[in-house]
């Protein structure tokens, strides 16, 4: 449970750093304006799911350390790495094929939310 909570907090801090990096260091350096929006989408989804990981840790504190909740947290982490990570890489490099990874991360997010619901029930 503590590892899940710490993971959510660290990912939240990393999200703020990435958002600041994107807003300041990368401002005007994107090949196209839409790549800036893609980067911001990655940051937004990373923050949502960092908070979700924190929620999972809190739920574990209330209902116990159920394996399904741990799976939910790690699916959220996988989603951040695949969804947001692919969007960061796509926006910085412009390599469109990286966008093929993004839906896999989205599926991890969906599966994580479903595991969280099952764990709560």
Which features would summarize this protein structure in a list?
elongated; 4 helices; mainly alpha; single chain; 121 residues
Written overview of the protein:
The chain is mainly α. The protein is elongated and about 50 Å long. It has 4 helices and no strands. It has one domain. The longest helix is centred in the middle third of the chain and has 31 residues, at 33-63.
Task: Describe the structure concisely.
The protein is mainly alpha-helical. Helix content is 83%, strand content 0%.
Question: How many β-strand runs?
Answer: 0
> Count the helices. How many?
4
- Beginning-to-end CA distance, first to last residue: 18 Å
Order of helices and strands: HHHH
Helix content: over 70%
Secondary-structure class: mainly alpha
Helices, strands, pairings?
Elements: H1 2-25, H2 33-63, H3 67-93, H4 102-120
């Amino acid at each position: 449970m503590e590892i899940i909570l710490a993971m959510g907090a660290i990912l939240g801090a990393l999200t703020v750093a990435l958002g600041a990096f994107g807003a300041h260091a990368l401002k005007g350096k994107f090949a196209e304006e839409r790549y800036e929006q893609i980067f911001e989408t990655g940051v937004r989804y990373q923050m949502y799911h960092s908070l979700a990981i924190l929620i999972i840790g809190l739920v574990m504190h209330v209902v116990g350390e159920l394996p399904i909740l741990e799976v939910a947290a790690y699916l959220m982490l996988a989603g951040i790495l695949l969804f947001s990570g692919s969007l960061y890489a796509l926006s910085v490099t412009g390599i469109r094929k990286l966008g093929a990874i993004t839906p896999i991360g989205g599926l991890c997010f969906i599966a994580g939310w479903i595991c969280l619901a099952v764990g709560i029930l």
